C-alpha cells in the first residue's frame, strides 16, 4: 500500500505519535526478547498429536492387500495409504503415487527431469530451449522460487488474488512458448492463506498454452489444513484438467508433513496416467521404491480418511488461537490507520501483511534489533525481491501462543515506527 | 570360457551324456517348478531379524544431542546414526551424510546434478560436453548401468578381477577427458563377490585423470555383509583419496537396505568436504532434510557399531548355507568338467557363473521352460549385452534353502544340456 492512501489526518496523527512510538520501541528492546515468527514449522504440541506413529506400524508389517512392506519394490507406494489419502483429497487413487516424505523432492525431480529429458509432451528437453520462463504468483512460496532459480529459469510474476492467480495475467503469459510452467499453492496458499476458486482452477485447466509441455505445479500442501470446523472444497484438479481437454496440465502434490511429522511423513503425486508413466520411467532408474514401512505406519495411524480430518481438527484447535492472536493484535494496534492490510486465513500456516510501500525491510530490521525474528522482506518473491518492499510473511505456528502475542505486539510497534519514519521522510 | 578349453575327452563325454541330460531335463520339467533365483532381496527370515524396528523409535523422539527428529531440518541427518555408522565403516562422521532409504537415489542425483550443473570440479555441466563416457567394470550391477544409460553416457567396460577393476585398463581410459566417471562396488561386488584390494583402491585414488571432475562411484552396498565370522577390511576411501592428492575423487555410498529393511533403511553419502558442500547446495533446493525419525529408529535398533556387526552375523547364519548349497551343487554336478567357473563369495548377495561362451542365454531359456527364473543373461553388462553370452548371475538370498537346492540342481542340468548342445553344434 502507498502512504498516500492514508489521509492527511492519519499522516498528522502518525507524525504526532513519533515520541510515543519511540518510547514503545525502546521498551520493547529493553525486554531483550528472543522470539521467532519465521518458520512454517509445526509446534511441539502439534507433533505430539502423532505420538502413536513413533511405534507404528508395529509387529504387523503386511498391507491389507498382502504386501510385505519391509522388502524392495512397489514404486507407486502401498494401496492402503494411496486409497485413504485419495479419499481424504477426493481424487482417484489410481492416479495417486505415494512416495517418501517430501513433496518438494518430487517437485524438484519433475522440473529436473523435464530439464534434462523433456517431459512426455516436450519437443525437446527444457535445457535445450533458448530460454525457459516460469510463472510465479506473488506473494508465493520461497522454496518454489529456489527450485526454478536453481535451474536458471526466468521467473515472471502474476498477482495472487483471493480467487487464485490472476487468470488474465496468466493467460497472457502462456501465449509465450518459452513459458513452461507455473507454481501454485491452491488451498490456503503460502503466505496469503487464499484458496484457488473452482472458476480459476477451470480457467487454468482450459487455457491454451503455446508450450505443449506447459505444467502447473499444483502444490496442495495445505489441502486439509483448516483453522475452522469446515474443510475446504477439494477440487480434483486432474479430473478438471481432463474435462477441459488438457489432461496433462497439472502435477499435483500433497503430503502429511504438517499433519504427522514434518520431514518424516508421506508425500504424494497426483497426475494423469501419461504424466505418471513418464515420471515412473525415470523414478524407476533413480530407485527401487519408496519407504513402504512408513507408509503403512501412516495408514495405521490415520485408519481412514475421516481419521485424517479428525487429526486436522486437533491441529486447528492448537493453531487457530495463534492466528486469532496475530490478526487480533494487528487490528487492535493498527486497525483503521490505513497503514497495513493483512489476510485473515481460515487455514494454512501463514498470514501475509502488506505494509506501506518501502517499509517492509525496515520493519524486519527494527524487529530483529528488538529480538523478534521475522522472515526476510522479499522472501515470498522470486529472487527474494519484493519490488514494492511491501510484504511481510508471518508464521505463528511454532512458538507458544504467549510468545506469539508478545512478538506480534512488538511487530505492530515496529510497523508503526517504520511507517512514521516513512511519513516523516515523505514530509521532508 | 571357451568350449575348446574343455579337452577332447570332455567333449566326447559331453556328447555321450546327451541322452542322460535330456532325460534329466525332462524330469525337471515334469516337476512343474516355480522357483526364482533372480532377485537380490533379503528373505523373510532375514527381515524378521529387524522386527523391533517396526515399533521404533518409540516414545522418545529426541536424539542424544537434543534434536526433535519429528520436525523439519537437519540436511546432514542426525549425528546418532552418522556416528554409529561411521564407526561401523571406519570413516569420518564429519564427512558422512545420512539420508533417506536409498543409496541408489543419491547416486542418481549425483550424476543428474553433475549433468545439469556440473560438479564442484567441472569446467561445464556434463550435459554441455560433446560426449560423456563412463567406465563399467564387468560383470557389474545392472542398476548402475541403467543410470548412466538414462543420461545417454557411453559405457565402456573394464574387466572386474578378484582384486577389483583392472587398474591398467582404467588408467588407460581416464586419459580421455570425456571419461567422467566409473561405477564400482568395492566390497563383495555384485555379482562376483570380489573385493577391491587396498592396492587397487590406492591406484584409483592416485591415478591422473584427464577430466578434472572425474568421479568414482564407490557403492559400498555390502560393506559389512560377510558370510563368515570375519568382516572385510574397511578402506576409508575418502581418506585414501586425500592422501593420494585427489580428495574429491570418490563419491562413496552405503546403506542399511540389506541389514534392516530393504527400501526402508537409511542410506549414506561419504565424500570430501568440498564434494559434500556441492551436494548440500543442490540437495537443500530439493528438500528440507531426510527422514530423521527413521534414522533415530535405526540408531536405537543397532545401539552401536558392534550392534551392526551382531546383526550381520545373524544374516550370515541365514545366508551362508544358501551360498554353500549353490556352490556345492555346482561342484558336485559340474566340477572338473571344465564347462563352468563360478565365484565362491565370502560376502554379498550374488554368485557369478561363467558358462561356455555363447550358452548363457540358452541356460536361462532352458531354466525358464523348467519353471526356474534366472536373471537374464547379459544383465550384469551395460546395455544388457554380454558380448560373450557367458555370465550368469545367481541370487540365492530370497528363496528358502530347500528351494535354492532344487533350483540349483535344475540350473546345473540346464548348464549341462546347453553345453552339450553347443558341443554338438561345434562338432557338426
Characterise the protein shown here:
Chain A is of the alpha/beta class. Chain A is built from 14 helices and 13 strands. The first copy, chain A, has helices at 8-16, 18-30, 44-48, 79-89, 103-117, 142-150, 167-173, 198-206, 237-243, 273-286, 292-302, 305-334, 360-369, 401-427, and strands at 35-36, 96-98, 133-138, 154-161, 164-165, 179-184, 215-219, 250-255, 267-270, 340-342, 351-355, 372-373, 391-394. In chain A, strands 2-9-8-7-6-3-4-5 form an eight-stranded mixed β-sheet, sandwiched between helices. In chain A, strand 7, helix 9 and strand 8 (250-255) form a beta-alpha-beta unit. In chain A, helix 2 (18-30) packs antiparallel against helix 14, helix 8 (198-206) crosses helix 9 (237-243) and helix 13 (360-369) packs across helix 14 (401-427). Chain A is globular, with a radius of gyration of 23 Å. The model of chain A has no long low-confidence stretch (mean pLDDT 96). The interface between A and B is large, with 53 and 53 residues.
Summarize this structure briefly.
Chains A, B: Keywords: Aminotransferase, Transferase. Chains A, B: One of its GO terms (molecular function) is L-aspartate:2-oxoglutarate aminotransferase activity. Chain A is of the alpha/beta class.
Order of helices and strands of chain A: HHEHHEHEHEEHEHEHEEHHHEEHEEH
Q: Biggest sheet of chain A, open or closed, and with what strands and sense?
A: 8 strands, mixed
Give the largest chain-chain interface (CB within 8 Å). A-B, 53 and 53 residues
Instruction: Give the strand content of chain A.
Output: 5-15%
Distance between the termini of chain A: 20 Å
Total strands of chain A: the figure is 13
Oligomer: homodimer
Helix content of chain A: 40-55%
Q: List low-pLDDT spans of chain A.
A: none
Number of helices of chain A: 14
Question: Widest sheet of chain A: strand order?
Answer: 2-9-8-7-6-3-4-5
Amino acid at each position: 500500500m502507498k502512504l498516500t492512501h492514508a489521509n492527511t489526518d492519519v499522516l498528522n496523527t502518525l507524525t504526532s505519535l513519533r515520541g510515543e512510538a519511540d518510547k514503545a520501541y525502546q521498551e520493547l528492546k529493553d525486554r531483550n526478547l528472543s522470539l521467532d515468527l519465521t518458520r512454517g514449522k509445526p509446534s511441539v504440541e502439534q507433533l505430539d498429536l502423532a505420538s502413536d506413529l513413533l511405534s507404528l506400524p508395529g509387529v504387523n508389517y503386511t498391507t491389507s492387500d498382502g504386501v510385505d512392506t519391509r522388502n524392495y519394490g512397489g514404486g507407486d507406494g502401498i494401496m492402503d495409504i494411496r486409497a485413504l489419502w485419495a479419499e481424504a483429497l477426493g481424487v482417484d487413487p489410481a492416479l495417486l503415487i505415494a512416495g517418501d516424505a517430501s513433496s518438494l523432492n518430487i517437485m524438484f525431480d519433475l522440473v529436473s527431469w523435464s530439464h534434462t529429458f523433456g517431459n512426455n509432451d516436450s519437443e525437446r528437453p527444457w535445457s535445450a530451449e533458448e530460454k525457459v520462463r516460469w510463472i510465479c504468483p506473488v506473494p508465493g512460496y520461497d522454496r518454489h522460487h529456489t527450485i526454478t532459480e536453481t535451474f536458471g529459469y526466468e521467473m515472471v510474476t502474476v498477482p495472487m488474488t483471493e480467487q487464485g492467480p490472476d487468470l488474465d495475467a496468466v493467460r497472457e503469459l502462456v501465449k509465450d512458448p518459452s513459458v513452461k510452467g507455473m507454481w501454485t499453492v491452491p488451498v490456503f496458499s503460502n503466505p496469503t492463506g487464499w484458496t484457488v476458486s473452482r472458476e480459476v482452477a477451470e480457467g487454468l485447466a482450459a487455457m491454451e498454452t503455446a508450450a505443449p509441455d506447459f505444467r502447473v505445479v499444483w502444490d496442495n500442501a495445505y489441502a486439509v489444513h483448516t483453522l475452522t470446523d469446515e474443510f475446504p472444497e477439494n477440487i480434483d484438479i486432474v479430473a478438471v484438467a481432463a474435462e477441459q481437454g488438457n489432461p496433462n496440465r497439472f502435477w499435483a502434490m500433497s503430503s502429511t508433513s504438517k499433519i504427522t511429522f514434518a520431514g518424516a511423513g508421506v508425500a504424494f503425486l497426483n497426475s494423469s496416467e501419461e504424466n505418471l508413466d513418464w515420471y515412473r520411467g525415470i523414478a524407476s532408474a533413480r530407485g527401487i521404491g519408496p519407504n513402504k514401512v512408513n507408509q503403512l505406519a501412516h495408514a495405521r495411524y490415520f485408519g481412514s480418511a475421516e481419521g485424517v480430518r479428525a487429526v486436522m481438527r486437533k491441529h486447528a484447535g492448537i493453531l487457530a488461537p495463534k492466528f486469532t492472536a496475530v490478526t487480533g493484535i494487528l487490528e487492535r494496534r493498527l486497525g483503521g490507520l490505513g497503514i497495513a492490510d493483512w489476510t485473515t486465513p481460515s487455514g494454512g500456516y501463514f498470514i501475509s501483511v502488506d505494509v506501506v510501500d518501502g517499509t517492509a525491510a525496515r520493519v524486519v530490521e527494527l524487529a530483529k534489533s528488538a529480538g523478534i525474528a521475522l522472515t526476510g522482506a522479499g522472501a515470498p518473491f522470486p529472487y527474494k525481491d519484493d519490488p514494492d518492499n511491501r510484504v511481510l510473511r508471518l508464521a505463528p505456528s511454532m512458538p507458544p501462543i504467549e510468545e506469539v502475542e508478545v512478538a506480534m505486539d512488538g511487530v505492530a510497534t515496529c510497523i508503526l515506527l517504520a511507517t512514521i519514519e516513512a511519513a516523516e521522510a515523505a514530509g521532508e
